[in-house]
Amino acid sequence: MTVYFIGAGPGAADLITVRGARTLAACGVCLYAGSLVPRELLAECPPGARLVDTAQLDLDEITAELLRAHREGQDVARLHSGDPSVFSAVAEQMRRLDAAGVPYEVVPGVPAFAAAAASLKRELTVPTVGQTVILTRVAHRATAMPEGEDLATLGRSGALIVLHLAARYADRVVEELLPHYGADCPAAVVAYASRPEELIIRGTLDDIAGKIKDAGVLRTAVIMVGRTLGAEQFRDSHLYSPDRERHTC
Predict the structure, then answer these.
(1) What global pTM score does this model have?
(2) CA nearest 155: which of 131, 193, 135, 181?
(3) pLDDT digits (tens, 9 = 90+) for 112-136
(4) What is the dihedral of CA 19, 21, 27, 31, to 10 degrees?
(5) Would you tell me how many other CB atoms lie within 10 Å of the CB of residue 237?
(6) Where are the alpha helices (H) located in the chain, listed in sequence order?
(7) pLDDT category, 141, cuts 50, 70, 90?
């Protein structure tokens, strides 16, 4: 058997990849985070599949379910919201499977920041304005941030910063980024990106924290801060420039 870590996408059921949907349809066991993964996706599971909501399970209990499926010879679809490569807690599950000798594969998905950018109708990398995107979070009761990855340090780059799991700490985000980006720097929040209840908040570092509080946004949101969010006057990309040398095969 094989465990497939599948990126379920940011929320909309039709944003799972074709490969992800096909893999899901072929697995006799599906473990999913019920608080984040759209239940409509479970309709893709084959009839009679064992469905396990992991929202209330700890790592040991999740691992036990994966090993049980392995003993029974069942392929497992392990559905994670967004893309497994970012803030998915997949690494420790793969480490457990490595120790147990259980094979696994990873099927990428649409990450939340990509869905948020689509909702904002923005390219996050704009010529001459910004070519770097930093994906990060803030330290709170969860895992501490490694040394040198605090917002005050990352903010020195001036790059567009995308913050996951940070909506309830908006005041802190603003405080640490303000010295580097300035009060007029564009900022945006997308909550429940791609879902029917999606909420978009636009502003600047000067007012975004207040707008987040007024809207009552606490979770399932992405905060973006950077000049590319408001860029209008910028040079066209060299990619399609008539001055770019092109060779035909």
Answers:
(1) 0.90
(2) 181
(3) 999 999 999 999 999 999 999 999 9
(4) 110
(5) 13
(6) 18-24, 59-72, 91-100, 112-120, 151-154, 170-181, 208-215
(7) low
Which H helix or E strand runs over 52?
Answer: strand 50-53
Domains of the chain: residue spans and CATH = 3-107 (3.40.1010.10), 112-230 (3.30.950.10)
Which of 33, 39, 100, 43 lies closest to 66 in space, CA to CA? 100
Q: What are the φ/ψ torsions at residue 43 (nearest 5 degrees)?
A: -65, -20
User: DSSP per residue over 117-160, as a string?
Assistant: HHHHT--S-BTTTB--EEEE---SSSSPPPTT-SHHHHGGG--E
Q: Say whether pLDDT at 235 is over 90.
A: no
How far apart CA 229 and CA 34 sit, in angstroms, is 32
Q: Using the 8-state DSSP alphabet, how is residue 236 labeled? A: P
Token pair 């860029």 is found at: 231
In tens, the pLDDT along 28-46 reads: 999 999 888 988 999 999 9
